[in-house]
Amino acid sequence: MTSPRFSIVPLGREHKRTGFCSGTGLLDRYFTELVSQDIRRNLTKCFVAVDNEQGDIAGFYTLSAAQIPLLHLPEKLAKQMPRYNAVPASRLGRLAIDKRYQGQGLGSVLLADALYRSSDSSLAVYALLADAKDEHAEAFYLHHGFIPCDGVPNTLFLPLGTIGKL
Ligand SMILES: CC(C)(COP(=O)(O)OP(=O)(O)OC[C@H]1O[C@@H](n2cnc3c(N)ncnc32)[C@H](O)[C@@H]1OP(=O)(O)O)[C@@H](O)C(=O)NCCC(=O)NCCS
User: Fold this and answer.
1) Among the options 30, 101, 126, 141, which is catalytic?
2) Helical spans, DSSP H, in 13-154
3) Alpha carbons 67 and 87: distance in angstroms, whole number
4) Which of 78, 129, 134, 159 counts the most CB atoms within 10 A of its CB?
């Protein structure tokens, strides 16, 4: 039996982040220089896709707790909710694939992993929120069925009840 090409695991000290390059400077700098501080402060978790053949980090994403104010859901969905101010969510704050691995389906795999971990949480999570850094990123999330939040540019969400489709 062949072993899988990639493992998706929490970022650890053993992972070499230097040189990671998705082509989006802000994301790369955050991953190579800043993410550990946020992890230490319990502000985020970070998961990486490790290439089991090369040992390189092929991609990463961050996940943290969030909420979506009912005002930001499309009216049709908001009407189906109880009269709470907000619904619980998890936030995919950052997602990036190293240039060498882009276009091979890994972005979709990390997205699916974030959805799986969100739905497998001990906490109730209604939807996965995603922050899109630019139009290119927004198009990626729209392609995967995400819905734009009302009145919040560059923020989209995907109800976990729909993840079967992905
Ligand atoms: C956006 C990004 C995460 C996509 O990752 P990837 O591994 O190259 O994408 P995949 O190969 O998994 O693409 C999967 C599907 O999404 C589509 N897709 C990929 N990028 C897309 C985009 N920008 N817009 C629309 N669709 C896109 C692919 O065509 C493919 O469609 P298919 O499954 O129907 O054939 C990657 O290009 C990246 O890291 N970019 C720089 C950082 C960034 O923009 N991050 C986004 C979050 S802030």
Assistant:
1) 141
2) 25-29, 35-40, 75-79, 106-119, 135-143
3) 6
4) 129
Token match 């939040």: residue?
149
Q: What is the largest CA-CA distance in the chain?
A: 52
Q: What is the pTM of this model?
A: 0.95
Indicate the domain borders of the chain: 6-162
Q: What is the pLDDT of residue 163?
A: 73
Question: Separation of 79 CA from ligand 1 center, angstroms?
Answer: 32
Cβ pair 150, 115 in contact under 8 A: no
116 noted as active-site residue:
no
56-113, pLDDT tens digit by residue?
999 999 999 999 999 999 999 999 999 899 999 999 999 999 999 999 999 999 999 9
Number of the ligand 1 atom closest to the C-alpha atom of 102: 8
String of DSSP letters for 106-141: HHHHHHHHHHHHHHTSSS---EEEEE-SSHHHHHHH
Q: Which residues are CB-neighbours of 43 under 8 A, at least 6 positions away?
A: 64
Query: Alpha carbon 134 to chain centroid distance?
Result: 15
Q: Is the predicted pLDDT of residue 151 greater than 70, yes or no? A: yes
Which CATH architecture group holds 6-162? 3-Layer(aba) Sandwich (3.40)
